[in-house]
Every structure is written in structure tokens, then in C-alpha cells.
Design a protein that fits this description.
By secondary structure, this protein is an alpha+beta fold. It folds into 3 domains: about 5-65 and about 85-240, Phosphoenolpyruvate Carboxykinase, domain 1, CATH 3.40.449; about 245-315 and about 395-560, Phosphoenolpyruvate Carboxykinase, domain 3, CATH 3.90.228; about 315-390, Beta Complex (Phosphoenolpyruvate Carboxykinase, domain 2), CATH 2.170.8.10. The protein has 17 helices and 31 strands. Strand 5 (about 90-95), helix 3 (about 100) and strand 6 form a beta-alpha-beta unit. Helix 2 (about 50-60) packs antiparallel against helix 5 and helix 16 runs antiparallel to helix 17. It starts with 5 loop residues before the first strand and ends with a helix. Bound molecules: 3-[(carboxymethyl)sulfanyl]pyridine-2-carboxylic acid and manganese (II) ion. The site of 3-[(carboxymethyl)sulfanyl]pyridine-2-carboxylic acid has 11 residues, from helix 7.
């Protein structure tokens, strides 16, 4: 790496710059270098040559293993430390001056204590290592909705992933030079010791400090730390929304495309929905789904009153297990080349493998690098991932690069709800829709450490990601409903409703298009509904079920309304809102009480 690194004894100046407009950045880099004491500093330019050098270095030191280059050209496997395989919510903090500003939804530490704790960990941690400075832009470089950041890290794996997941390097640095405002993210893998691992956010200072993990959202600071926790805070003060949502375009046979943003908790199928392939009959008629983003959505009102959205990311960090030619052919097609796989198994001929791939092959090595033994667990870790450029997705929307963003027609909330919650319902209005989002519940998944399959409230799928008090966040959502606003309709879906025998009642995957079709018909005033206290359900025959085999139980549970069950649910929602005390907006409490009362009538 020496050929492309700076000698630390020389002044730390961004490459290609006279330093004047980047004084704050240069000063911060120098300050970090003085604290962490790296052997070398490398400013990332994002070029192919730089990436090739880093990959070669990581191959040499075993950080990356080259996969079968005939079947998967340009693709590599990374095995993370076995104790470092997922986000760590219990070690993730929001450090605001007032504890109430972080809210009961976050772990809190004072900014002074947070900095002290982290700086003690960072002291000298990069001795013997290279410090990489990664300028990046979240969103298209020319978009007014985009925001820039700089991540400093000692992990070349992070550099390679950030290159895929963000617009990284020279163009981002040029934008930072123009704007001079950027999010500061400091990261070190440290010793990968779970006892010395913290992910700290300082939203008031637009700063992130992450130590002791090299994995995904803990380490790729542009993703969850910047694009959700810091951005949600920034969005509140600037009048926009930073959300844990996919964005897709639904094109009908008339060539009209409606954009939908959908929030589902981690590992609940956002990537699959974003890349949906319509069922055969729909395809024949000309229906298409375009992928704008699979995880994060930044939205702001445009001059016409509609919400316009960008995907701040440039790639996908998708869950590998369960990805197959049946569940998500577009994802599978995307990851045939130039992909970094993390913690998957490997076949005898060195191809990546995971449970549910269903390609007729078998693993010989598991995610830890041991000989695969089914008795000892899965070949791929349940939270194993692929990192790939969005440009490799066959359905990647050209509109994803539009600096103006895409206009959103519908917002969808959804979770894993084995009982009670029907397939789809529509909120009556914006305030009701905000309550639907605020009341979201879902079973936990392997995307974070901790128990899997436990029901918890996950408002707007932002429980792990909202950088401030949820009560203020709901208030911010409510504030969009003002004169001149042309807001999207809000819906709730549940692809995970189970029957008495424990099996899923809805086929899901491509068939979910039927539900999206009903939503857009509702947006256009072309489909009927039945009004219930929880919202509008599809009227009989209004959601196209032709060719879907649903038994009586399926129809009753997917499209029915269980009054007694919802009474109990609304009592629980009321208790949940009360946990936030007087900061909870009265309008939301009134809405909950109005519906609870209607459920009694
Ligand atoms: O970031 C991680 O460590 C895995 S979790 C993840 C990865 C990609 C997209 N979303 C998530 C999530 O937890 O929501
Ligand atoms: Mn996510």
C-alpha cells in the first residue's frame, strides 16, 4: 500500500487540493491521525486502480478469498470474526446534550462521556496499520437531496464495501470542497473484541465513532449510522425524512410508473420486494417493477407538494440466505460478478453457497472456514451478506440517478405478523397513516444480535435507526400534512400471516404485485374498499386473486377483520405511546383513542 499512501510525517492534505476549502477536513484528519497513530494515511480516490491494489493486498493477507472466477468473476469472500456478524443494538448509542432528545428508543450517553470513552479506545489503535480517508456522497452527486460524509477507517474491507455502497472518492471530495459541510465518521476494527465495541452517534455534531467491529452497519458508516441515525436528525431540522424504506417503480401496461416507498424491519424482504418480478400473467400484459433502492429512502416535499425520494445508497448489502432463482432472480443475477460475499459457505469448486440458494450444489466449507457439517449449523451465517453495485441489478431504475428524485405515490408499512394483521389495509388519512407506522410491530430477525422471532414494536422499521426521540420523530412526520401538501396514501401490509397449521397463507414474492396494484388503483380512485375502524380493506373482488390458490382460512384471515383481536392490539398501542410521556404528540394519542373507541362500538 505504500505506493498510494502518504507518509504520516508529511502534512495531511486532501489529494489534488490546495487545502484552503478543505481546511476543516484536513484539520480533522490530522487530529484523528494524532490520536490513532497510523503508520500511513491513504486518501481514497475511488479509482479502479486503487480498488485493484486494495483487493490484491487483502487477498495476500487473507482478508478476502478469491471465489471461482469462471462462475463469479471479480467476486470475493470475506469471513468476519465469528463474534462480529451483525449489528449490535445494545452497544449502539445516541449522544445528545439532553437525554430526552435521544428518547427511550435509544441508548444514551452524554457527548462528553461518549467522546471520552471512544477516544480512549481510539488512542494509538492504528499503530502498524494504514488509515484510509474515504470521502463519500450519499445519493447522486448532483442531487440537492444528497449529503456527503467522510469515513476514516483502518479496514480496507470497509473501503472496498463503501466503494460499492456509496459514491466514493474524487467526485465526493469535490462536492465536500464546494459545500464544506460533511458527516465525520471515525471507525477502527480495534481488536474486534466484543467487550471493547461501541457504535456512538453525536447527531448535534454530525459525527459518528465506531470501534471494535468490522461488520456491515457497524462499520460501513455511510449506511445505517449516517444515512439513517445522523440523517434522521439532520432531516428533522431541514424539513425532510430519512427512512428505512425500499423504493420501487411500478409500471403498468399503459407505461405509467408510480413510485412506492416501503418500510419493513430488517430482513423482512425489502430487497425481494424492491426487485420483484411480476407473475407470468402480469408480465405478459406489460407490468414491470423498477428498483430504485432496497433499504434507505430520503424524501422531501417538492415545489408541487408531492414527496420526492432518492436512494442515498449506490449498492445493495443484501441478506444471502434465502436468495434464490425463485425468491429473487434479479438479486441472483446481480451477484454473478464483482460481488463481495461475507460469511457465506463455499462449494468444492469455490462458488459461494447459502441455505435456500437451491441451485443443486452443496457446500464443503462453512462461513467460519471449517469443513461443513450440517449437525454443527448452517453453512452460511443467517446474516451473511452480498455487497454489489445497484448498477448490476437488471431492474435498476434509470430514475434512481435522477438528481430530482422520484415522486412517491404510496408509502407502505409492514412487519412479520403471524396473527391478527390482514394482508393489506389503507390508512384513512395522513395522521392515521402516521399512527399505523408508529404502531408497527414485527418479529425480530438475525439482522441484529439477540433473540430471533420475538414480537417487538418497530415504528416505521426505525427502532434501531432513529437518531432522536420517537415522539419528536412522529411529530415531524405529522408536520408534513400542511396546506399545499399532496402526500402519498399510506398502507400497511403483512406478507407473513400464518394459518392454524403454522404455514404462511400468502404466497408472497412476485404475487405481492397484486397488492401493489390495488394500492395504486386506490391512489387513482379506481378500486373499492370496505371501511373498518383499522382502515380500508380491499372490497371483495377488488384485489386481483385470479390464479392464487387461497383456501377458506386464507381468505378469511388475509382479508378479514378480527374486532376482538384489534381491541387488544389498540390497548397495547396506547400503552406503547404512553411510554414516551408528554412528548408524544396529542394528535397521535387522539387518533389511537378514536380508533380504540370505534373498535368498542
Ligand atoms: O448492517 C448489518 O450489519 C446487517 S443489517 C442490514 C444490512 C443491510 C440492510 N439492512 C440491514 C438492517 O438491519 O436493516
Ligand atoms: Mn435495513
Amino acid at each position: 500500500m505504500n505506493a498510494i499512501s502518504h507518509d504520516v510525517s508529511k502534512p495531511v492534505i486532501a489529494a489534488g487540493s490546495d487545502g484552503s476549502r478543505l481546511a476543516a477536513l484536513n484539520a480533522w484528519v490530522a487530529e484523528v491521525a494524532a490520536l490513532t497513530k497510523p503508520d500511513a494515511i491513504h486518501w481514497c480516490d475511488g479509482s479502479d486502480a486503487e480498488n485493484a491494489k486494495l483487493i490484491a493486498q487483502m487477498e495476500r493477507d487473507g482478508t478476502l478469498v478469491k471465489l471461482n472466477q469462471q462462475t463469479h468473476p471479480g467476486s470475493y469472500l470475506h469471513r468476519s470474526h465469528p463474534d462480529d456478524v451483525a449489528r449490535v443494538e445494545h452497544l449502539t448509542f445516541v449522544c445528545t446534550t439532553n437525554q430526552d432528545d435521544a428518547g427511550p428508543n435509544n441508548h444514551w450517553m452524554s457527548p462528553a462521556d461518549g467522546h471520552d470513552k471512544m477516544d480512549a479506545l481510539f488512542d494509538g489503535c492504528m499503530k502498524g496499520r494504514t488509515m484510509y480517508v474515504i470521502p463519500y456522497c450519499m445519493g447522486p452527486i448532483e442531487s440537492p437531496l444528497s449529503r456527503c460524509g467522510v469515513e476514516i477507517t483502518d479496514s480496507p474491507y470497509v473501503v472496498a464495501n463503501m466503494r460499492i455502497m456509496t459514491r466514493m472518492g474524487a467526485p465526493a471530495l469535490a462536492r465536500i470542497e464546494r459545500e464544506s459541510k460533511f458527516v465525520r465518521g471515525l471507525h477502527s476494527i480495534g481488536e474486534l473484541d466484543p467487550e471493547r465495541r461501541f457504535i456512538m452517534h453525536f447527531p448535534e455534531e454530525l459525527t459518528i465513532k465506531s470501534f471494535g467491529s468490522g461488520y456491515g452497519g457497524n462499520a460501513l458508516l455511510g449506511k445505517k449510522c449516517h444515512a439513517l441515525r445522523i440523517a434522521s436528525h439532520q432531516a428533522r431540522s431541514e424539513g425532510w425524512l430519512a427512512e428505512h424504506m425500499l423504493i420501487l417503480g411500478l409500471e403498468n401496461p399503459q407505461g405509467e410508473t408510480h413510485y412506492i416507498a416501503a418500510a419493513f424491519p430488517s430482513a423482512c424482504g425489502k430487497t425481494n420486494l424492491a426487485m420483484l418480478i411480476p407473475p407470468e400473467g402480469y408480465r405478459a400484459q406489460g407490468w414491470k417493477v423498477w428498483t430504485v433502492g432496497d433499504d434507505i429512502c430520503w424524501m422531501r416535499p417538492g415545489a408541487d407538494g408531492r414527496l420526492y425520494a432518492i436512494n442515498p445508497e449506490a449498492g445493495f448489502f443484501g441478506v444471502a440466505p434465502g436468495t434464490s432463482d425463485k425468491s429473487n432472480p434479479n438479486a441472483l443475477a446481480s451477484i454473478q460478478m464483482n460481488t463481495i460475499f461475507t460469511n457465506v459457505g463455499v462449494t468444492a469448486d469455490n462458488q459461494p453457497w447459502w441455505e435456500g440458494l437451491d441451485n443443486g450444489q452443496q457446500p464443503v466449507t462453512d462461513w467460519r472456514g471449517n469443513a461443513f457439517d450440517a449437525a454443527k449449523g448452517p453453512a452460511a451465517h443467517p446474516n451473511s451478506r452480498f455487497t454489489v453495485s445497484a448498477k448490476q441489478c437488471p431492474t435498476y431504475s434509470p430514475e434512481a440517478e435522477n438528481p430530482a428524485g422520484v415522486p412517491i405515490s404510496a408509502i407502505v408499512f409492514g412487519g412479520r405478523r403471524p396473527s391478527l394483521v390482514p394482508l393489506v389495509f389503507e390508512a384513512r388519512d395522513w395522521t392515521h397513516g402516521v399512527l399505523v407506522g408508529a404502531a408497527m410491530g414485527s418479529e425480530t430477525t438475525a439482522a441484529a444480535t439477540g433473540a430471533v422471532g420475538v414480537m417487538r414494536r418497530d415504528p416505521m422499521a426505525m427502532k434501531p435507526f432513529c437518531g432522536y426521540n420517537f415522539a419528536d420523530y412522529f411529530n415531524h412526520w405529522l408536520s408534513f400534512d400542511k396546506a399545499g401538501a399532496k402526500l402519498p396514501k399510506i398502507f400497511h401490509v403483512n406478507w407473513f400471516r400464518k394459518g392454524d397449521d403454522g404455514s404462511f397463507l400468502w404466497p408472497g414474492f412476485g404475487e405481492n404485485l397484486r397488492v401493489l396494484e390495488w394500492m395504486i388503483q386506490r391512489v387513482k380512485g379506481e378500486a373499492g374498499s370496505v371501511e373498518t375502524p383499522i382502515g380500508h380493506l380491499p372490497a371483495d373482488g377488488e384485489l386481483n386473486l385470479e390464479g392464487v390458490a387461497l383456501g377458506e382460512e386464507g381468505r378469511a384471515k388475509l382479508f378479514g377483520f378480527d374486532r376482538a383481536g384489534w381491541q387488544a392490539e389498540f390497548a397495547s398501542i396506547g400503552e406503547y405511546l404512553d411510554e414516551y410521556g408528554p412528548r408524544m404528540p396529542q394528535a397521535l394519542k387522539d387518533e389511537q383513542q378514536r380508533i380504540a373507541k370505534a373498535l368498542q362500538d
